[in-house]
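Checklist before submission:
- one chain only
- standard amino acids only
- sequence pasted in full

Submission:
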Amino acid sequence: DFRVNLTLEGDMEGLPIAGDFDGDGLDDLGAWADDVFSLDLAADGLDGFTDVQFTFGFPGVRELPVAADFNGDGIDDIGLYNPDAEGVAPGEQSDWMILVSQGDPLAALDQQYGFQYSTSTFFNAYGAQEKWFLDASNQWFFILPSGEVYDWDNTAGAAQGTLIKKVDPAAYTDLDRLVLSIENGGKPVVPVTDRIVADPQGLLGNVVDFTPEPFGPDIFASFGDEQALPVVGNFDPPVVPSTGSGESVSVVGLAATNLQNAFDVNGDGAVDPQDVLTVLNHLNRYGVGEFATGIAIEAGGVQLGGWMPDVDGSGRIEPFDMLQVVNEVNRL
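Returned file contents:
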């Protein structure tokens, strides 16, 4: 009916995002400007005013905020799309930096089993330095100093059973971290809003540390170019290749080497001068060096799209890669 149902006149300024950022099942509002995310959380009602705020940004003036559930845990994640990145994967000039919600294995175990203490304390009962506790159905579990948590198999005189999880050994020292995790406010999934801390250097107010793999669960990827606009969402299930073979399609790390035929650099199924030119273009554009990671589409174990110029599999793109393709073309 072309009528606005609700107008919020708050204090948030910048480019808008929306999603369930704190994991309470309600969509929140957000805005990003001058490297600062401002969030209006729906838990206390949406009013357009900032409830939490944190600094997150990188050098550049054309970054755009994005929000979606990138890791599929039911809580929306927050990130930035930078169309002006440098030193990224071949054919890609844009970077994605995504802050994702993180799992808490101790809270997840406590929620799954409903751990509780017995009325009596049992420690090292069977000589393995084990500590004992119960689940919600009064089945015995124990944890070893290594952090291994076992479901006891009721073998008298033996600390043995089914290993259900290996956790931080600190949980053995302070067993409340596991047995009372939920009671003490632990969450199986920690949203981005719970990762906000004061800047240790005292310069940026509140911050969220960006820790991509292998240092943490956050996401860094190269995809798109300087002319593109970001689109995020769950686009893939169910998807099959256009051939109709029924093979599943997935997003994978961009391969540097064509595992089907290393000389087929452009992945078109043939080895010809075009592959030589592809390596040459890569060297002219990016120079000699390591191959930057990115993302691509894979079906049936075969990468669809994307250059794969690391012919010798050395991890570096060099003139020797081009020479190998030249020799293979001459041989054919």
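Reviewer check: The chain has five helices and 21 strands.
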